[in-house]
């Protein structure tokens, strides 16, 4: 979802942005007008996320999936080793890609219990020689989230934050690199945001394609080639919404906790439905649940769809149901869902 406030604003500016005589979509990325749109998006992101000055923000393309390769190409440059924690499909894909470029050590995995928890991580588990440690902070498909960050000592922590970015405050200084496909919580598809500590830029391997080298984009203000101009504009509006309409990430978190608690509290008290994730690993954004009976799950998915609920079917790899309640989902959306689940429960017990 995108906030209606954002869509209304974009609709109002669709034909002409300000007095520029053109739509943002029609602007040259090298024009003065567009540079202002771009700069505003970056400065809002820095402000809202409280990004320290020694970090670069890069606006890229290729999705979070391209980062699975860019990270090892740019960062596996000293020992050629990296530590990965496996907590679901996305972290598995990230690790598989890194294996093409160096020695990958799987530090821990929650595959033994269908990724229903975040493994306990201790500093002694990490290789002090590793070039970085990779985690997936929020696991979109399985609905888990780290409740605390692992202590990796001096080894840079790299995190995929695609499905939790902007959902609550995050201490950027604890990370070497953060990355997110924008389409879950920042804006439309087509934009990938990378936040990288400056000292990690500039040591990519020789074979790295120019477009896959962070230095290329850092040196050119993300304008080495044409960036996803319209997606960046919408991302700027989403950030403006968080800042002016919500009141920042602390407030955003408050709202997200309230939304998620509504659903978790119901799941914990329900006799028909149950959540699939261990309590201390629960995501604020993605909430998977089941009835315990596949036929009943199917019936729920069909009936909820007919009632106007969108995308409640669980990911094809896990089945069941999953409610994704990203930032833009209003609390009323979750209230309506719980109401519907209560009704379904009464009719099917
Ligand atoms: C959606 C998602 C991805 C994939 O993002 P793309 O931009 O489609 O490549 C990767 N990681 C996480 C955690 C995701 O939620």
From TrEMBL:
Domain Aminotransferase class V: from-to ranges: 2-337
Alphabetized Pfam families for the sequence: Aminotran_5 (PF00266)
InterPro entries assigned: Aminotrans_V_dom (IPR000192), Aminotrans_V_PyrdxlP_BS (IPR020578), Pser_aminoTfrase (IPR022278), PyrdxlP-dep_Trfase (IPR015424), PyrdxlP-dep_Trfase_major (IPR015421), PyrdxlP-dep_Trfase_small (IPR015422)
Superkingdom per UniProt: Bacteria
Pathway terms, separated by semicolons: Amino-acid biosynthesis; L-serine biosynthesis; L-serine from 3-phospho-D-glycerate: step 2/3
GO cellular component, one term: cytoplasm
Coiled coil segments of this chain: none
Residues annotated with N6-(pyridoxal phosphate)lysine modification: 184
Example GO molecular function: O-phospho-L-serine:2-oxoglutarate aminotransferase activity
Role summary: Catalyzes the reversible conversion of 3-phosphohydroxypyruvate to phosphoserine and of 3-hydroxy-2-oxo-4-phosphonooxybutanoate to phosphohydroxythreonine.
Protein name per the record: Phosphoserine aminotransferase
Taxonomic lineage from the root: Bacteria, Bacillati, Bacillota, Clostridia, Eubacteriales
